Amino acid sequence: QVQLQESGPGLVKPSQTLSLTCTVSGVSITSNSLYWSCILQPPGKALEWMGAIASRGSTYYSPSLKSRTSISRDKSKNQFTLRMNSVTPEVTDEYYCTKELGLITTGQATDQKWGQGTQVTVSS
């Protein structure tokens, strides 16, 4: 059974880089055709796809976040990590890690699996 577990800092300062690590179990992150995404949900707002890393290592980003976001992976730990700088101060957002068969932005991704999410507050 595929499971994703997010781990984040809980609290970051506006000057710091937000780092969200997703640990995957039940499948290798290098398995063919799988994409691993990070999704943001601001309070009271719609879900926002931030970016993804493919099983072959290619990365994809939301145009609105591309300049300040990066996604990498550690195959030995079966983890992928999102880093984002210039975070908006005085907000608390929920972050999710997901798995898809296919890239979300194509509109044809299937077999999506979600982690439980983790909350991150940006505050000085």
Care to describe what's here?
The protein is mostly beta strands and 124 residues long. It is built from no helices and eleven strands. The strands form two sheets. Strands 2, 4, 5, 6, 9, 10 and 11 form a seven-stranded mixed beta sheet that branches. A hairpin with a 4-residue loop joins β5 (48-54) and β6 (59-61). The radius of gyration is 14 Å and the shape is globular.
SSE layout and pairing:
Blueprint: E1 3-7, E2 11-12, E3 18-25, E4 34-41, E5 48-54, E6 59-61, E7 69-74, E8 79-84, E9 91-101, E10 110-114, E11 118-122
Parallel strand pairs: 2-11
Antiparallel strand pairs: 1-3, 3-8, 4-5, 4-9, 5-6, 7-8, 9-10, 9-11
